[in-house]
Inverse folding.
């Protein structure tokens, strides 16, 4: 049972004696009520988590170790991979441990921490995708000035700006949740601490808090999407002016992987949001949450590696260096 930091009390506008003040723990929703299915689900999500982490780590290693990939596009890609690792690590390990221990409890401080990092990395993903769209816009629409515009200082500044904007969004969410002092229930209808779920559990007036969150969503969500749409609007018109079909295909191929990741990220996020609004079943909306918190970060390395010859070549060279080092120094690998 979830415990309380204070006593059970009534909220000012409610008479239900079950309204709780000073909650110290919340209960997360399980993916399945079947205890025999829990080990299977735990093994499945552990496998998906390891594939996500290893796949994104390979992208980071390939980009950092290969001088051919020391370009703005791959610099942003390695930072996106790092954000994806943080995004999945915020929720999935906790869910796997809960399945193994048959526990749904998360402490109040742990819930707040998980929510903060979840919003942080989700917003970093969002911002980096828009930065990568701008990079493709400059590369295709202004190829002669690409190196002048996308110099290393600007690239580093854009990544740092994305992080600090995301940190601001995360801290604003935390401040809003910290203002909630009274809850109708401690059961969260998701497998992680979703800020919207915490607002729904509050028994105090959350109208102003919801308006603030919607306003932040409009700023931190709509602006990056608008930037991506504008960039691809310019890219498409620039490509259509290329006379040869081979040139058009080559130009499209440079942004095909990014466009696929954008569609996957925003598509699963939109499905998750609509399912939570339309579907009366919490488990159905939770399946949609799994799609954008687990499946999307796992597929990103495959999309970039399978469709990108530069990444494939870099991974092959990295593998060759590892094998060569192992052959030259075999005793270093012996226990």
């Amino acid at each position: 049972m979830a415990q309380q930091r204070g006593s059970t009390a009534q909220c000012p506008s409610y008479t239900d004696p079950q309204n709780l003040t000073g909650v110290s723990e919340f209960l997360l929703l399980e993916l399945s009520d079947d205890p025999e299915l829990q080990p299977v689900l735990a093994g499945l999500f552990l496998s998906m988590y390891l594939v996500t982490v290893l796949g994104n780590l390979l992208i980071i290693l390939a980009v950092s170790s290969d001088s051919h990939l020391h370009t703005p596009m791959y610099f942003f890609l390695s930072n996106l991979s790092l954000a994806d690792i943080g995004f999945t690590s915020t929720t999935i390990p906790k869910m796997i441990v809960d399945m193994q221990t048959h526990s749904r409890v998360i402490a109040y401080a742990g819930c707040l921490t998980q929510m903060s990092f979840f919003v942080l990395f989700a917003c970093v993903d969002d911002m980096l995708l828009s930065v990568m769209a701008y990079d493709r816009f400059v590369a295709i629409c202004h190829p002669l000035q690409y190196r002048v515009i996308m110099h290393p200082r600007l690239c580093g500044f854009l990544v740092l700006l994305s992080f600090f904007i995301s940190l601001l969004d995360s801290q604003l969410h935390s401040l809003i949740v910290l203002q909630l002092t009274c809850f109708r229930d401690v059961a969260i209808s998701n497998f992680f601490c979703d800020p919207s779920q915490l607002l729904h559990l509050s028994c105090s007036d959350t109208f102003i808090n919801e308006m603030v969150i919607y306003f932040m969503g409009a700023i931190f969500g709509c602006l990056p999407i608008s930037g991506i749409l504008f960039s691809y609007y310019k890219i498409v018109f620039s490509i259509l002016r290329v006379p040869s079909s081979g040139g058009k295909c080559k130009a499209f191929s440079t942004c095909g992987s990014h466009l696929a990741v954008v569609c996957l990220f925003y598509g699963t996020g939109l499905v998750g949001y609509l399912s939570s609004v339309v579907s009366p079943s919490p488990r159905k909306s939770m399946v949609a949450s799994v799609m954008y918190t687990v499946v999307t970060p796992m597929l990103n390395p495959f999309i970039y590696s399978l469709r990108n010859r530069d990444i494939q070549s870099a991974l092959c060279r990295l593998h060759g260096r590892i094998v060569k080092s192992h052959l030259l120094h075999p005793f270093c690998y012996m226990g």
Summary: The longest helix spans residues 108-141. The first strand starts at residue 20 and ends at 21.
